[in-house]
UniProtKB/TrEMBL annotation:
It comes from the Eukaryota. Keywords: Calcium, Cell adhesion, Cell junction, Cell membrane, Cell projection, Disulfide bond, EGF-like domain, Glycoprotein, Integrin, Magnesium, Membrane, Metal-binding, Myogenesis, Phosphoprotein, Receptor, Repeat, Signal, Transmembrane, Transmembrane helix. It comes from Salarias fasciatus. The chain crosses the membrane at residues 712-731. Residues 13-443 form the Integrin beta subunit VWA domain. Residues 619-708 form the Integrin beta subunit tail domain. The keyword Phosphoprotein applies. GO terms for cellular component: cell surface; focal adhesion; integrin complex; lamellipodium; melanosome; ruffle membrane; synapse. This is Integrin beta. Belongs to the integrin beta chain family. Disulfide bonds join C14-C24, C17-C54, C27-C43, C185-C191, C239-C279, C379-C393, C413-C671, C441-C445, C456-C468, C465-C504, C470-C479, C481-C495, C510-C515, C512-C547, C517-C532, C534-C539, C553-C558, C555-C586, C560-C569, C571-C578, C592-C597, C594-C640, C599-C609, C612-C615, C619-C628, C625-C703, C644-C679. It is a single-pass type I membrane protein. InterPro entries: EGF_extracell (IPR013111), EGF_integrin_1 (IPR040622), EGF_integrin_2 (IPR057073), Integrin_bsu (IPR015812), Integrin_bsu_cyt_dom (IPR014836), Integrin_bsu_tail (IPR012896), Integrin_bsu_tail_dom_sf (IPR036349), Integrin_bsu_VWA (IPR002369).
Length: 778
């Protein structure tokens, strides 16, 4: 279970208690403590104090608050409208408030941010003038007027400045021979003397002046590849009065084709002093490059952030990866690729500005010890983020509003209790929210305390908030003892019950001859009594609940609530739970014992002896509910969840898995029902020993087997074929018989025909033959 921070704090006065946690309260009722309870038990969670009998009006539970002192609404204006001074434009709301913090209790407020249109911009172009940047210098010479023209599409108030850098003017970064100091370039190249950083042009709205002064610049040179750009960035950031920075959007364009030196590299030139982060410009030239080391990246990040400067690194493609990594370390910075034409530089600056200005990132100043802050952002399109992502919103267009919920929490009180001030601002913007933090470290009743009160043993303590706050060297509930003699034998004797050997029943400590009982890990459990012989947790239990949940434990004896009795308060005197629907106690088939029916008729069960699982009609009564819950069919499938949730259903695989009458200690009714598809389903109905209706159902329906289509189809086809063959055979046989009869008939007629010899019967030959009777053939 969760630890009760109020008890763990062991607070001995009200101030300590309320610092322990937001849930903690202090009971200042003088008569609140029971015998044996220590003063620290006055500190507890509110509900626990109320439960223990402390009146709500006697509980000290102060709460924090917040007051907004300046809440100017964000500016809503359009480009071309009446021109406002930068200090009159508001992009963040509220601007000033105070929070009163109580330990552990967060105070939250909403912060609104809105990008103002036509917001002024200052841009400082810081350029590497080492020899390799010769071509780039030519491109920049006409940048002023072109950039002015393009930036006028974004803002009507734009200023531009210029500065250059090369390297520290010591070996081994440059050659220190006299000739090379005059002209570091080789051959007939005419170069200017090397320098660390030179401020050329204050921020101005005159683009022609920018072109003129930049056109007068000459290339210089150095020996090593990395440049001293970090020295220049530091001076640009901290020398605001030289540069002419206004409280507007500040952009620093850093243009180079090489890497950079950083903190520690100065040792190569014998320079060991860390960069002091201060302005050292004399006649617009950095004069301490030979004295201070290069700044670290973290140092630069701090100074750029403090001065609200957003950095744009315009570098050649070769060094893109290096400056991308640097960008990841410097908030509100961007990287663009430098190429050999001026329009590219302008596009790079505008793209980088749009990228930087479309993201808002909140940062806060250093927090006092014990104070934490949490952010939740509500950005465009309903996107909500928490944690580190809760600090920022992206893809913000001009005129968009975003909200941040900021929660400030204190843990405990600072060592020196005084108002603290923190500031929250969006990176790259000059506006900020100023928050004054006040801390609640004492209770209201503290101011009414009486020092050296007679109630605290002749003035040995301050009586405040219902208890004595003892002076140094004094102990006891009334500060009645000296801390030097709290463990004498005479005092211990009064802490032994019946002159026994156990001091405070081994449940407490003897302080000033009085038992102060130990605390339990469970804050709801307590020892009490003159000898800590009592407790509120060693009483009889019922249903695994102390005093059956129907009483309280006092000195190891249950004190039952009304209508309950028994050693564990588990016997109800209320007969309403035994009343059956027919208004009879236990349905006339049992007796009511401690609010529970004991059925005398073995057929009947249930809380009021009304359930008869083996009576006729039980199966038909539950058929529809079993059908809809097990198979999703039946008349009640549409109202199943509403009408059929009064029993526990358990599915089994086969009928032999169903409970059998001899297996259970309660009657079981076996049921067999048929559904609309003539399928049978089997289940059992019973009321178990916990008076719960229990149904076991076989999860597969027993449906009559349908005809086997294949043999039927084969039989039909075979029958048709056989019948066809038989008909053909019969037809053939009939034809044969018919043919034979016809042939016989023909033969008969043939034999009977007279013209069978082939002579015409009416033919008479023309020849007459006469035979000589006398002729003998000789």
């Amino acid at each position: 279970c969760d630890v009760n921070e109020c008890i763990v704090a062991n607070a001995r006065h009200c101030g300590e208690c309320i610092q322990a946690g937001a849930k903690c309260g202090w009971c200042k009722d003088p008569d609140f403590l029971k015998q044996g309870e220590t003063v620290t038990t006055r500190c507890d969670e509110l509900q626990s104090l109320l439960k223990r009998g402390c009146d709500e009006a006697m509980i000290e539970d102060p709460h924090g608050e917040q007051v907004v002192h300046r809440n100017k609404t964000v500016t809503n204006r359009r480009k071309g409208a009446e021109k406002l001074n930068p200090e009159d434009i508001t992009q963040i709301q509220p601007q000033k408030l105070s929070l009163t913090l109580r330990s552990g209790e967060p105070q939250s407020f909403d912060l609104k941010f809105k990008r103002a249109e036509d917001y002024p911009i200052d841009l400082y172009y810081l350029m590497d003038l080492s020899y390799s940047m010769k071509d780039d210098l030519e491109n920049v010479k006409n940048l002023g007027t072109s950039l002015m023209l393009e930036m006028s599409k974004i803002t009507s108030d734009f200023k531009i400045g210029f500065g250059s850098f090369v390297e520290k003017t010591v070996m081994p970064y440059i050659s220190t021979t006299p000739a090379k100091l005059l002209n570091p370039c080789t051959g007939d190249q005419n170069c200017t003397s090397p320098f660390s950083y030179k401020h050329v042009l204050n921020l101005t709205s005159d683009g022609n002046q920018f072109n003129t002064l930049v056109g007068q610049q000459h290339i210089s040179g150095n020996l090593d590849s990395p440049e001293g750009g970090f020295d220049a960035i530091m001076q640009v950031a901290v020398c605001g009065h030289h540069i002419g920075w206004r409280n507007v959007t500040r952009l620093l364009v850093f243009s180079t084709d090489a890497g950079f030196h950083f903190a520690g590299d100065g040792k190569l030139g014998g320079i060991v002093l860390p960069n002091d982060g201060k302005c050292h410009l004399e006649n617009n030239v950095y004069t301490m490059s030979h004295y201070y080391d290069y700044p670290s990246i973290a140092h630069l990040v701090q100074k750029l952030s403090d001065n609200n400067i957003q950095t744009i690194f315009a570098v050649t493609e070769e060094f893109q990866p290096v400056y991308q990594e640097l960008k990841n370390l410097i908030p509100k910075s961007a990287v663009g690729t430098l190429s050999a034409n001026s329009s590219n530089v302008i596009n790079l600056i505008i793209d980088a500005y749009n990228s930087l200005s479309s993201e808002v990132i909140l940062e806060n100043s250093k927090l006092p010890e014990g104070v934490t802050i949490a952010y939740t952002s509500r950005c465009k399109n309903g996107l909500v983020s928490e944690g580190e992502n809760g600090r920022k919103c992206s893809n913000i267009s001009i005129g968009d509003e975003v909200m941040f919920t900021i929660s400030v929490t204190s843990k405990g009180c600072p060592k020196q209790v005084k108002p603290e001030t923190i500031k929250i601002k969006p990176l790259g913007f000059t506006e900020e929210v100023e928050i004054t933090l006040n801390f609640i470290c004492e209770c209201e009743c503290h101011k009414d305390g009486v020092e050296n009160s007679d109630l605290c043993h002749f003035g040995n303590g301050t009586y405040e908030c219902g208890a004595c706050k003892c002076n140094d060297g004094r102990v006891g509930r009334q500060c009645e003892c000296s801390s030097n003699d709290v463990a004498t034998e005479d005092m211990d004797r009064t802490c032994r019950k019946d002159n026994g050997t156990d001091i405070c029943s081994n449940n407490g400590d003897c302080v000033c001859g009085t038992c102060e009982c130990k605390k339990r890990d469970n804050p709801d459990e307590r020892y009490s009594g003159q000898y800590c012989e009592c407790d509120n947790f060693n009483c009889d239990r019922s249903g695994n609940k102390l005093c059956g949940g129907h009483g309280r434990c006092e000195c190891r004896v249950c004190v039952c609530d009304p209508m309950w009795t028994g050693s564990a308060c588990d016997c109800s005197l209320d007969n309403s739970t035994c009343m059956a629907s027919n208004k009879q106690l236990c349905n006339g088939r049992g007796t009511c014992d401690c609010g529970v029916c004991k059925c005398t008729d073995p057929k009947f069960q249930g809380p009021t002896c009304e359930t008869c699982p083996t009576c006729p009609g039980v199966c038909a009564q539950h058929k529809d509910c079993v059908q809809c819950r097990a198979f999703g069919t039946g008349e009640k499938k549409e109202t199943c969840e509403r009408d059929c949730s009064d029993f526990i259903m358990i599915k089994v695989k086969t009928r032999d898995k169903l409970p059998q009458p001899n297996d259970a200690s309660y009657p079981v009714m076996h049921c067999k029902e048929r559904d609309a598809n003539d399928c049978w389903f089997y289940y059992t109905y019973a009321v178990n020993n916990n008076t719960e209706k229990e149904v076991h159902v076989v999860d597969a329906l027993d449906c009559p087997a349908g005809p086997d289509i294949t043999p039927i189809a084969v039989g039909v086809v075979a029958g048709i074929v056989l019948i066809g063959l038989a008909l053909l055979l019969i037809w053939k046989l009939l034809m044969i018989i018919h043919d034979r009869r016809e042939f016989a008939k023909f033969e008969k007629e043939k034999m009977n025909a007279k013209w069978d010899t082939g002579e015409n019967p009416i033919y008479k030959s023309a020849v007459t033959t006469v035979v000589n009777p006398k002729y003998e053939g000789k």
